Amino acid sequence: AEKKNQVDFYNRRFVAGELDNPSFAGIAKAMGAEGIVVDRLEDVGPALKKAIDLQMNHGKTTIVEIMCTRELGDPFRRDALSKPVRLLDKYKDYV
């Protein structure tokens, strides 16, 4: 979402490094947790159930890495990078 914000609000210019698809499930396993990779929508529910079972019954923290689409989602707040509207006079100078 952060890259999408930068693309939308800064004319396709963005600041970040391009990581070559790190496996967050792999990172979790390297740090002693469980990691589950899901690449089909129908597998999301069972993966979440397994993660909950591992946490609740075995005390094992689990990362569920969901890779079902490569499409960037819309930002949660459309106004996230727009200038604030100051409603109180004492804050009008802080724009």
Short descriptors:
single chain; 11% strand; elongated; alpha+beta; 95 residues; two-stranded parallel sheet
Task: Describe this entry's structure for a reader.
The chain is built from three helices and two strands; from the N terminus they run H-H-E-H-E. The chain has 95 residues and is α+β, with helices and mostly antiparallel strands. The chain has one domain. It has a two-stranded parallel ribbon. The longest helix is centred in the middle third of the chain and has 15 residues, at 44-58. The protein is elongated. The mean pLDDT is 83.
How are the SSEs placed, and which strands pair?
Elements (H helix, E strand, L loop, with lengths): L1 H8 L14 H7 L3 E5 L5 H15 L3 E5 L29
Give a concise summary.
Residues 3-66 form the Thiamine pyrophosphate enzyme TPP-binding domain. The protein has 95 residues and is of the alpha+beta class.
H/I helix tally: 3
SSE sequence, one letter per element:
HHEHE
Largest sheet: 2 strands, parallel
Look at the helices and sheets and give the structural class. Answer: alpha+beta
How confident is the prediction overall: mean pLDDT? Answer: 83
Keywords: Transferase
Pfam families: TPP_enzyme_C (PF02775)
Organism: Paraburkholderia diazotrophica
GO molecular function: thiamine pyrophosphate binding; transferase activity
